[in-house]
TrEMBL record:
InterPro entries per UniProt: CsbD, UPF0337_stress_rsp, YjbJ, YjbJ_sf
Protein name: CsbD family protein
Pfam families on file: CsbD
Residue ranges constituting the CsbD-like domain according to the UniProt record: 4-55
Domain of life: Bacteria
Residue stretches in coiled coil: none
The family this protein is said to belong to: Belongs to the UPF0337 (CsbD) family.
Amino acid sequence: MNWDQIQGQWKQFKGEALQNWGRLTNDDMDHAEGDQEKLEGIIQERYGKSKEEAHREVEDWISKREPH
């Protein structure tokens, strides 16, 4: 998968993101609006990760997603 596919189906994928990053909330997912950089920023904030760590985690998560 790529981020464009996830962004286009964000409502379906945001539940999976919440399961993967348990500290995130529905409000966080709504704020991210399917934007990868916004999601990475929220992960940085909630988990105290560097920009690079958050980016790596999101890229890893994307690579494991199946199309809906």
